[in-house]
Amino acid sequence: MLETVSEHACFGGVQRFYRHDSREIGLPMRFSVFMPPQAAHGPVPALFYLAGLTCTEETFMIKAGAQRVAAELGLMLIAPDTSPRGAGVEGETASWDFGVGAGFYLDATQPAWAKHYRMYSYIHELRELVTKELPVDAARIGIFGHSMGGHGALTMALKRPDVFRSVSAFAPIAAPSQCPWGVKAFSGYLGEDKSAWGQYDASLLMTKARTPFPAGILIDQGLGDKFLQEQLYPEAFEAACQTAAQPLTLRRHAGYDHGYYFISTFVEDHLRFHAKNLTA
Fold this sequence. Notes:
By secondary structure, this protein is α/β, with parallel strands linked by helices. The protein has helices at residues 59-63, 67-73, 111-114, 119-133, 148-159, 180-190, 202-207, 228-232, 234-243, 260-278, and strands at residues 3-10, 13-21, 28-35, 44-50, 76-80, 136-146, 166-170, 217-222, 248-253.
């Protein structure tokens, strides 16, 4: 059952923030939804946005400036929180890049984390929930995200291309098995056995695929991003796409950093990319 936390008129549609009791997480979870004006007349295509480290369900809706174009295109935008809140796991607030605000969109298997840190399964639970409770066209769902959320969007889509018909990302953690953020998260949530890591590594998943998204994947990456060299590895995903015969548009932008000024600059391109694919 959905509880409306707040509601705001926006570009002829409505911006809402919801809370619900999650089966997968075992705790209350929050998410946000922008309903375009077209949703008043029937089901519309939906686009899930997965946010990055330290973000919440509010970040994208407040900072990206996506609602105007979503209203024009008739796209519903859905943004979940980035981790459980109030799980009470020892150490979950000790660092900004692990634990609270840093669920990494996976299902943890290590004993301390396995009960509540189930963000991979939660996204699917949320998809089922909004399809049931809101005017979402279940046959037209896409996914995109930023940084940790870009990693989440790519892995979710690659594992379930039957569910997500389109995928894109802003500055994704494209090869988490190789970077400090990913190694820290995977070790903590999944353990030291690296054979378990590959199921949540987009570059490794892509090497085992064959043209999973024939209409292409869109990625934008700022060349002024301070995390580019050490954490993101877009070149690894690019190489994997070549191996998998996967069409990829990887745009590299001089001067742009890792934040929402970058995202807000290119978010319209991503919305139009998804709208084209979801209405094809």
